[in-house]
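Notes to self after the call with IL:
- keep both proteins in one doc
- input above output, always
- annotate only the second one for now

Protein 1:
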Amino acid sequence: MTGHIPHGKTVYVMSDRELDDYTIHNSIIGELQKRGHRVVDAGDKAPASAQGSLVLHYLDDWNWDMCMYLAALNIRVLDGNTSEPVAIGTYRTP
C-alpha cells in the first residue's frame, strides 16, 4: 500500500458496489480497529458528511475454480475534506 492512514482519524469504510458478502468488509473494519482507528461502517453508501475523517473505498473481485477465491482487491483511502487520495493499495492473484 502506498500512503499512510494517520492515527486518530475516523475512517468510514464503504464498498464500491452493493454488499453481497461481508467477509472482506468485516476484515477491513477489524484490521483498522486493531490498529487503533475509530471505524464507521458505511456499508455501500457514501457517508453524508466525512469532514475531518477519511473514507476507505474498496472493490473486491472473486472468482470460482473449485472454490471461491479473492482474485483482486483495490483499496483507496480519501481525505473526507478534499477527496484527495491519502493511501492506495491493490492486490491481484498471480
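Protein 2 (the one to annotate):
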Amino acid sequence: MRWSQLRKRLRERFAESVRKRVDVHQTRYRNAHDEEGELWFSVDGSRLLSSGSATYLLKLGFLVEESRAKGASWAEAYDKAWPVMEASGLMLLEQMNRDLFDSLNQTVEEMAQHGNPLVRGLAVLDRRFGKRRLAAFEVSAEHELVQALVRFRCEAEGLKAPVQVGEEDRGHKL
C-alpha cells in the first residue's frame, strides 16, 4: 500500500476531536542510499516524535561501539543494544510502516498492547478508544509519545489527563 493510502486510512480512524489537529507524516530521501526516510507525528503543526532508519542505525552503532570499547564482544554488544533500542522507540522505517499497516487490522485493545509506541499512540487517538478507557489509561510506564498523546486527547475531549507520580505541580502540556 502506498504511503498516501496508509496515511488516509490511519487518519480516518482518529477521534473527531483530534482529527484536524493530528497528522502522521513520512518522507523519503531519494538521494540517500536505499531511499531511507523518516516518519513523524505532529500535533498542531509541532513534531512529537521523529524517527527513521538513519537515526536508528546511528544510535545502534553508537551503542554497539560503546559496549565494544568496554571490552564486549560483537554479540554481547548487540545483545546489550537491542533492549535499549526497543525502549527508545526508534525503529527502522520499514518496521514502522509494517506496524502501522498491520494496525489497520487490529482491535483497539491489540493496538494498545502493541510493542511499538507508534501503534500504541495511534490506539489512544483512535475513535474506538473511548473516553472511559482514556480516563482510566495507565500512562506511567508508557513511552513519552504515548504519554503526550494521552494528555493531548484528554485535553481535546475535555477530560482531566492522568497524572504521573511527581507531575502534580508541573502542569504538563503539549
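Annotation: The first helix runs from residue 3 to 12. Strands lie at 22-28, 37-43, 46-52.
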